[in-house]
Amino acid sequence: MNTTSPSGADRFVIGEKHLDLTPLGHSSLLWNWQGLIIHIDPWSAQADYTRLPKADVILITHEHQDHFDPATIHLIKKASTKIIANPAVCGLLGEGTVLRNFDTVTVEGVLIQAVPAYNNSPGREQFHPRGRDNGYVLNFDGWKVLVAGDTEDHPEIRQVAGLDVAFLPMNQPYTMTPEQVASLTKTLKPKILYPYHYRGTEPQTLVELLKSSPEIEVRIRSLA
Predict the structure, then answer these.
(1) Which residues, given as ranges, of the chain have pLDDT below 50?
(2) Which of 88, 102, 114, 118 could form a disulfide with 130 if both were Cys (CB 3.0 to 4.6 A apart)?
């Protein structure tokens, strides 16, 4: 069941629990799982983080400046905040829990797995080389969310199964074309798809490409 929370966030009802999503912009997301606050790729260009709740968990996909903003991380962290990132980000920060591709960690009952995020089209491999960056699968009491990070369609990501929600990036040449996103979506079969990181790309193109898959709800939010 999906509703809207009192704050205007997208609310997913999971059993007797609530998972609230606030899309902040680009690839910056705010999750509230029964009071557990999870920030993904917080970037001050997308929101006034002084007005947002401080993080219990911060997930960083990779070290590009539109994903890794040290000043914002320090603004929203508490003494108890758990920072989880790829090796490069943890090295730059000098702290955090390193997750390499396929590693897992459980935080307050939420199982988090790092999944590969990389370019595999000829001439684009330098943007996000294989083995460096992460996407994440978050498991909230069996409700599975993929936040894919900056990636193209590749064999490893096609193995992610049982998704309820997927966030897939859409801005060639750095990530995927609408056609690539549509093809990957038809393989992953999430109940709900959010295109994100789509600056310079028209999201309605993706809506048209997925009209033949009405079982997948495409949600367009301000995530350019």
Answers:
(1) none
(2) 118
